[in-house]
Amino acid sequence: MSEQKVLFLDKPHGSFVVSSAPILKPGPGQISIKVHAAALNPIDWKIQAFNFYIKNYPAILGTDLAGDVEEIGEGVEGFSKGDKVFGQGFFGNEMAGFQQYALIPADLVGKIPSNISYAQAASIPSGYTTAAVGLLSAQPFGAGLNPTYDPKVNYTGESALIIGGSTANGQFAIQIFKYLGYSTIIAYASARHTDFLKSLGATHIIDRGETPIEMVAETVKKIALTPLKISYNALGDADSRSACFDSIVEGGQVVDVISEFKDAGNGKRVVTIMGSAHLPQNREFGRIMWKNVPGLVQDGVILPNRVEKLPGGLAGISEGLERLKAKKVSGEKLVAFPQETV
Ligand SMILES: NC(=O)c1ccc[n+]([C@@H]2O[C@H](COP(=O)([O-])OP(=O)(O)OC[C@H]3O[C@@H](n4cnc5c(N)ncnc54)[C@H](OP(=O)(O)O)[C@@H]3O)[C@@H](O)[C@H]2O)c1
Fold first, then answer.
1. Under a CB-based contact definition with an 8 Å cutoff, are residues 196 and 331 in contact?
2. Superfamily of domain 128-272
3. What is the mean pLDDT of residues 277-289?
4. Please, is 299 exposed, middle or buried when counting C-beta atoms within 10 Å of its C-beta (0-12, 13-18, 19+)?
5. What pLDDT, on the 0 to 100 scale, is given for residue 267?
């Protein structure tokens, strides 16, 4: 078999169409993965709508995948054909998730822990990487809270805020603060997610249905036992960013998924996350991160997102992206199954 099914975005601002393309052989250092589960992200519909990052069309998108090792490239050690693995896709067709076979650098791939499914595994790479690069990796690309996953690092007694706690990446930010030992972890989210976000590690929920975003900083100051040195904006919009700034002390850090804002004044620092381990500035941290992620998941320190399984194989992705765009996905990750494509 040398052909596979893929989902092409046919042209800039174009349509998603199921098509065929060759199955590529892994190059040195790469693994070919038979993709059983591929998760959807906002970036996928944003690329379709706004045409950025992608240079060549037709393009295959998708940055979250899980499946089986199909073939191993030269120099790769520690993996065998048939191993269950998960990893983050990247822009450029060979590394994308919305196809039946993808090539990923072996040092950015993890073995799927026995306690989670392919779909759950596919919910982890991009959301977790975003929060981990933003919070753990060294400055200036991250907040530098624990770039080496040193188990001795501990922030007990400290407080943190996450705006957008129920987003895919916000859920991982909550869990990373818990992993770091933060004593007070405040999430701004819908009240219906309270029990779920507390199960991930949030100690307090500020209900976004009750507290307008402009009141968040004031509310945080009443809750937190210690002044905040860090806040995390999982939404990226300007109002959330202001709330993040207003909640932290002078010299503190706002970690933000979208901001291009560099100088917050008052000595406050902004970390703009580029949540891909494939990027040169994140590559070394990415290697360390992927050595640690499977164990953290196996030990229950990091839980996957809750998943909703999409029907129809690759053909089901387009409708899922429309739902993401229309903000009709709440506290869950949509996951497609490329091998079910007819
Ligand atoms: N910089 C990077 O590398 C990077 C990486 C990943 C994502 N991002 C960006 O980060 C953003 C979030 O992505 P995602 O995939 O994590 O999100 P997502 O899971 O698609 O977000 C959906 C969630 O957002 C919550 N939400 C929406 N508006 C809210 C508000 N005003 N306050 C609090 N919660 C709100 C919704 O909660 P309700 O249930 O309350 O509606 C819902 O649960 C996107 O803009 C994405 O493009 C950037």
1. yes
2. NAD(P)-binding Rossmann-like Domain (3.40.50.720)
3. 98
4. exposed
5. 84
Q: Whose CA is nearest to atom 37 of ligand 1?
A: 330
What is the share, in percent, of the chain residues with pLDDT greater than 90? 96
167 CB under 6 A from ligand 1? yes
Element (H, E) at 222: helix 216-223
Residue 320 beta carbon below 6 angstroms from any ligand 1 atom: no
Q: What is the DSSP letter of 263?
A: B
For the domain bounded by 3-124+304-340, which CATH number is listed? Answer: 3.90.180.10
pLDDT in tens, 319-337: 999 999 999 999 999 999 9
**Pairing mode of beta strands 30-39, 333-336:** antiparallel
Which atom of ligand 1 is least distant from the CA of 257?
Answer: 1
C-alpha of 114 from chain center: 21
Number of Cβ atoms within 10 Å of the Cβ of 57: 13
- Tell me if 166 CB under 6 Å of ligand 1: yes
**What is the 73 CA–ligand 1 centroid distance (Å)?**
36
Residues 10-69: tens digit of each pLDDT: 999 999 999 999 999 999 999 999 999 999 999 999 999 999 999 999 999 999 999 999
* Per-domain residue ranges of the chain: 3-124+304-340, 128-272
Ligand 1: does its nearest atom lie under 6 Å from the Cβ of 247?
Answer: no
* Whole-number average pLDDT of the chain: 96
